[in-house]
Amino acid sequence: MVVSIAPKLLINGELVEASDKKTFALYNPATREKVADVPEASEQDANAAVAAAKAAFPAWSALDPSVRAGYFKKLADLLRAHSSELAELEASSMGRPINQYFDAFAAAGNFDHYAEAWPQIQGQASLNTPGYVTMTLRQPMGVVAAIIPWNVPLLFLSSKCAPALIAGNTVVLKSSEKAPLTSARVAQLVIEAGFPPGVFNILSGHGLPSGAVLSRHMDVRALSFTGSGRTGRLIQEMAAQSNLKKVTLELGGKSPALIFADADMDKAVEETVNSIQWNSGQVCMANSRIYVERGEAADAYKAAFARKFASVTAGDPLDSKVNHGPQADEVQYKSVMAYIEEGKTAGGTLTTGGNGTLDKTGGYFVEPTVFVDTPETARVMKEEIFGPVVMINTFATEDEAVAAANDTEYGLYASVYTKDIDRAMRIAKALESGYVGVNCTSPATGRDLPFGGYKSSGQGREGWLHSLDNFLETKSVIIKVANL
Ligand code: NAD
User: Fold this and answer.
1) Ligand 1 pocket test, candidate residues 160, 176, 181, most atoms within 8 A of CB
2) Would you call 409 a catalytic residue per the annotation?
3) Domain with CATH 3.40.309.10 in the chain
4) Where along the chain do the CATH 3.40.605.10 domains lie?
5) Which residues form the active site (predicted)?
6) Is the minimum distance from the CB of 437 to ligand 1 under 6 angstroms?
7) Among residues 40, 88, 90, 250, which one is catalytic?
């Protein structure tokens, strides 16, 4: 398929090539065919984008927020109107089946939400200090950078840029080199929506150079990142070594689902399969470890899980009947396959998938794969595989289940299925996780709830009103008043 756009960088309101004309080739992971040449933003381009954002900041931050909101509403309408096209661009760059595409409507929903949410940005006033009136002001920080991954690109683009922009900041976003096409299309829509030049800049390229330039830039005051723990640590280091910019990190996961024998097993099977199969397992909060209460119920659960997980329809992600696409690229494919090979010698049993291939189109397809009874100490039990691969173990007691669930550096999402409300609440409290689902699992989330990780799964929280805090300074003002 020939992609319908010629991707460009959006810098200071203009769509441009990279300053040194460098591009990188993007391949369709379902067919390995080249789909586009994408501009590789240079150090100079990243600096130019930050300079444009800095220059645009005074006028943008001085606007009435309802005027800023007007641009948001136009962009939201454009995103919805182009949803099918955006779905096709994502399918051909990172392999997401078009029938799983919800990102354009979700992104539009985020821009719509923040177009109405600005009155929630409020300070406080008090008379608690005798002789003074005191108040706090919430003010934008200046230039904000956003660096996003490839698995759900427009969701992250919108959930970072919309709150930053409505609060009066200006933005430089860098898309992922694995899925740059939808962000490049949004760059065109940003112009169509009429955003003033320099307010909303969009770069494509690899972590090096442009991502690193943003991370250590002295004029970037806040940086919101979603991606791997490895990159998150590098960004945190670059922030510390430059201007100590405020960094929000949404990182990886190894999310456990605990399933007790009294649970609604049909529902548990359906939802836990969906969690690890959706987007071919390339989801930070996917339940990649499952612990089932030992006994007959566990045997029935494992058999039903395997049947359902193996019944995917793999193929061309542009085919609306397909619900299982390829991994995002060759690097991801090889990484998942290496973990599968390691799983085979880790001491557990491979019960589903893991051997052949589902490939019908010449792409990077991985079979839904299940390992059972793998020793807790194995690397495949501890590290994020980021593919359609699940480890199912059993437990005898509640304490044992919680201890195993918590025995990882990650803590993004955890879930428990049981009809016993006391047990559910005990476990919800004990799990070291930023999100807990009771009788549900990921991707079930509430848009107005804070999302983020315990431990090495991240730092800070995102979520409708919570995200505004990531992009606002708080200033205390103290006013001396005579005879008060
Ligand atoms: P990644 O860390 O490889 O890349 C993420 C982004 O960082 C890309 O835009 C990349 O170009 C950029 N980058 C790479 N090196 C950089 C550097 N040195 N400096 C600055 N930027 C750099 O991650 P990925 O493979 O794109 O995404 C998968 C990871 O993201 C998984 O670990 C997944 O769990 C995580 N993730 C987390 C969440 C969440 O909300 N917690 C959501 C989705 C994905």
Assistant:
1) 176
2) no
3) 256-447
4) 9-251+459-476
5) 250
6) no
7) 250
Distance 401 CA to ligand 1 centre (A): 30
- Ligand 1: distance of its center to the CA of 231 in Å? 6
Across-strand partners of 249?
225, 459
CA–CA separation, 276 and 234 (whole Å): 28
Question: What is the chain's pLDDT, residue by residue, as a tens digit (484 residues)?
Answer: 546 789 999 999 999 999 999 999 999 999 999 999 999 999 999 999 999 999 999 999 999 999 999 999 999 999 999 999 999 999 999 999 999 999 999 999 999 999 999 999 999 999 999 999 999 999 999 999 999 999 999 999 999 999 999 999 999 999 999 999 999 999 999 999 999 999 999 999 999 999 999 999 999 999 999 999 999 999 999 999 999 999 999 999 999 999 999 999 999 999 999 999 999 999 999 999 999 999 999 999 999 999 999 999 999 999 999 999 999 999 999 999 999 999 999 999 999 999 767 888 899 999 999 999 999 999 999 999 999 999 999 999 999 999 999 999 999 999 999 999 999 999 999 999 999 999 999 999 999 999 999 999 999 999 999 999 999 999 999 999 999 8
> Strand runs (DSSP E) across 17-175, as ranges?
23-27, 34-39, 125-126, 132-140, 143-147, 170-174
- State if residue 408 touches ligand 1 by the CB under 6 angstroms criterion: no
Cα distance between residue 258 and residue 252, in whole Å: 19
First and final CA of the chain: distance in angstroms? Answer: 73
At the fourth CATH level, which superfamily is domain 256-447?
A: Aldehyde Dehydrogenase; Chain A, domain 2 (3.40.309.10)
Distance 431 CA to ligand 1 centre (A): 25
Residue 212 CB less than 6 A away from ligand 1: yes
**Which architecture, in CATH terms, is 9-251+459-476?**
3-Layer(aba) Sandwich (3.40)
Residue 227 CB–ligand 1 contact under 6 Å: yes
Q: Is 45 in the pocket of ligand 1 (CB under 6 A)?
A: no
Distance of CA 350 to the CA centre of its chain: 30
For the Cβ of 41 lying below 6 angstroms from any atom of ligand 1, the answer is no
Q: Which two tokens stand for residue 410?
A: 């990650």
